[in-house]
Amino acid sequence: MAIFRFSPDAAVSASARWLAWACAIAIAILSLVPGSERPHTVLPKTAEHFAAYLGAGFFLALGYRSARQRLIGWLGLAVASGLFELLQGFIPGRSPSPLDAGASAAGLTAGMAFAAAASAAVRARVVEVDDQVPGSRWGRRPRSAGCPLPADSPRRGEGTAARSSVRHEAHE
User: Fold this and answer.
1) What is the C-alpha separation between 55 and 76, in angstroms, rounded?
2) For residue 48, with 0-12 CB atoms within 10 Å meaning exposed, 13-18 middle and 19 or more buried, which class applies?
3) Which of 20, 83, 80 is nearest to 56 (CA)?
4) Neighbour-count burial of 90, counting CB atoms closer than 10 A to its CB (0-12 exposed, 13-18 middle, 19+ buried)
5) pLDDT tens across 106-160, in order?
6) Alpha-carbon distance 162 to 88, whole Å?
7) Residue 153 falls inside a structural domain
8) Residue 15 — very low, low, confident or very high, per pLDDT cuts 50/70/90?
9) Residue among 139, 160, 34 at smallest CA distance from 92
10) Which residue range is the domain that position 29 belongs to?
């Protein structure tokens, strides 16, 4: 029988992935509508680009944890940003700007860096708190983070027979 456990980390990653894709879709739509139909803010155009991509980069880095996935995501959105700017030359009321593409890439980079730093700080705090829990054998840290199994616990794949033989040997 399989036991399913809720993992807050997995839930955050899944939610962040959805939000990253929602941001990317919103950016694509808002980048390709005519200028008269696009909502405008009080911010300068480059600040709008920076802020939009900052959010997308933040959620992208929270949703995709490996460096390879983050690099692919960064490259994809950075290239899309440049492509959107080029396509704006064909849309009424819009004009392409390399400065806007640069602001987009800078916002994307800042958002991803902020999320990576925040995620690392939260994980470090969780490990620190778990180490202080009385009676905790190994806290919540993943084994790959330097948290070995106790010497008396069975290794992965060893069933109750292995545990009982360890107990019998200890009592003999």
Assistant:
1) 15
2) buried
3) 20
4) exposed
5) 999 999 999 989 888 877 776 555 555 555 555 554 544 555 555 555 555 555 5
6) 66
7) no
8) very high
9) 34
10) 8-148
